């Protein structure tokens, strides 16, 4: 699960992304609007959580990616 800003998605006039591929495709539009497309608070648990979410989102629930 990844949280996204509805206001940011609305600002670029896009549909809310539901996959990593969709978020990646929107990244240039976010940058053009002055919005950082992907960020977190810099804490270790957040980095681990993002890696797990990315691995599951791209590789599927049987992904073997490890931090």
Whole-number tally of structural domains: 1
Outline type: globular
How helix-rich are the residues, as a percent range? 40-55%
Alpha carbon gyration radius: 13 Å
Class inferred from helices and paired strands: mainly alpha
Head-to-tail CA distance between termini: 17 Å
What's the rounded overall pLDDT mean?
84
Largest sheet, in brief, is:
none
Give the SSE order as H and E letters: HHH
Number of strands: 0
Poorly predicted spans: none
Kindly estimate the percentage of residues that lie in beta strands according to DSSP.
Answer: under 5%
Q: Treating each run of at least 4 consecutive H or I residues as one helix, how many helices?
A: 3
Could you give a short description of this structure?
The protein is mostly helical and 67 residues long. It has one domain (6-59). 52% of the residues lie in helices and 0% in strands.
Descriptive notes:
The chain is mostly helical and 67 residues long. The chain has helices at 6-11, 20-32, 44-59. Helices cover 52% and strands 0% of the residues. The radius of gyration is 13 Å and the shape is globular.
Summarize this structure as a short list of keywords or feature phrases.
single chain; 67 residues; mainly alpha; 3 helices; 52% helix; globular
Topology:
Layout: H1 6-11, H2 20-32, H3 44-59
């Amino acid at each position: 699960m990844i949280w996204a800003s509805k206001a940011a998605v609305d600002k670029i006039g896009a549909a809310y992304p539901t996959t990593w591929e969709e978020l990646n495709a929107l990244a240039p539009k976010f940058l053009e609007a002055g919005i950082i497309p992907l960020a977190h608070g810099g804490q270790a648990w957040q980095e681990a959580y993002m890696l797990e979410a990315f691995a599951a989102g791209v590789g599927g629930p049987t992904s073997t990616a490890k931090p």
